Amino acid sequence: MRLDELLDELQARIDAARGTRDRVHSLLEAVVSVGRELELSQVLRRIVEAGALLVDAEYAALGVIGPDGRTLSQFLTVGLADEEIARIGSLPSGHGLLGEVIRNPEPLRLADLGAHPSSHGFPAHHPPMRTFLGVPIRVREEVFGNLYLTDKRGGRDFDTEDESVITTLSVAAGVAIDNARLYEGSQRQQHWLRANAEVTRSLLSGSSRTEVLQLIAHRARDITGARAAEIATALPGADGLLVEVATGAGAAARQGLVLPIEGSMVGAAHTEGAPVASSRAATDRRFPAGAPLPDAGGPAVAVPLGTGGGAEARGVLLLARAAGDPVFSEGELEPLLAFAGQAALALELADRRRDAEQIALLEERDRIARDLHDLAIQRLFATGMTLQSAARLVEHEGAGQRIGRAVDDLDETIKIIRSTIFGLRTKDREAGTGLRARTARAVGEAAALLGHPPRLTMEGLLDTDVPADVADHVVAVLGELLSNAARHAHATRVGVSLKAAAGEVVLTVSDNGVGIPAGGRRSGLANLDERARRVGGSFLTEPPAEGGSRIVWRAPLHPDRPERTPRPDTRPDARPEPGPSPRPGADAQASRPAPAPRR
Q1: For labelling alongside 245, which of 2, 4, 272, 473 has CA 20 to 30 A away?
Q2: pTM beyond 0.85
């Protein structure tokens, strides 16, 4: 009997030694498995799976501590199906018992987690759990996160050996996480360098402003793993930021929105001139006015485009990740700031290119005006003089009348050319005061009210042919129609067309909103109709076939009004401009001035 007892004891010790050997082998395999991965997400997943396997736990989780050091920014689980996670709802943020390991980064082992003072119970649809083991994971003396294990299979409690095994695993996990972060940082740096080179090539190749901004938004979203990205630029004369480029989740709904500066994440980054980050943008109380990106209610960061805040910042780059994704770390923000500088450079180059094109346009206008004045008018005047001289030699009455009508047509042509020259020079001297500039300014200001920029088209000699009083009516009517579209139409698309042709100016404003109700208020429309009748025009409202409304306001140009005379040229080398051609039949010596010499 004694021999049997000794043999049983020997067998038990052998089994224990084998169990210890197997556990050591499992631990070594787990360390190798964790260290084999280079992607940080895969490393974290391997750590959780290895921890549950080593101590035979039914449930395991790894919580990554956020930048504030008090809450969890990421939570990975093992043992729960996706349906169970969806029923439970939002993932833990690090309060209660989980926060106890955050506040005191030491191993915590409990036989009944519900009896701990920090335990707050479980949310609805959460499976019951009893035993608990929590161990911190350190990376270079910094607590990266915590490994949580619950419910050892067989109803047993976690013992000291389990704690030692998980503590050993946490040390190997810290090394693996550090390696993965270094590898991820080097890869990210290469991606940023390639993206910077791509943006630079796009800038130097002459791509448009919108194309460059779209490239910047796409690359920033791809490199950071964001679900959505957008670039918002400042609106001149308005207290808001226009979403000029949007990509990713909800891009169509965000494109063209005007975001407020006060109370929004992009507004804070624009004002402070520094990055603004949030672990949960959808519920961040600091930004009640900043609607988060659709379907991306996780961490977000807003980076200013430029080195200064306020007026010096040209816009803001906003990136948003999905719920449950890691927050934007300091290592990600540094290259992101440099990349945002590329976006600011793109905006600066686009503005300089536009200024250069404007200068070239003004110089071309001046050249055209000089050529029309010095060449076209002189030749037309000489042709009219020749026809008048020939009219005296024609005895046929019908032929003489035709020559007279030709001379009259030449006179009208000279007047049109003079009006064109005056209009070109007026644009150079009085930029921003003509009907075109006032219309563009009114449409730009309406973008803040509508939430998106209207589509604008203009045709004809609006600055020269439209009388000043009619132009004032046009601007007033346009402002009223755009205001009505913003307040009542609930439209997502507004079009504005302004034409001066066929003796009248025509303003058309259309939208895809709810239309004009049959029994709605008509006081505003009556005022617009009264303005049209006051200048001898008309006012018409009509519903398009595709829905919405279409409003047309017309006014005559009064072609018999006095012609605007160009300002006299006071340059020392200026020559008198030829006057109107005399009519056939007048005395040649009295009515015909000497023809101007040819150049």
Answers
A1: 272
A2: no
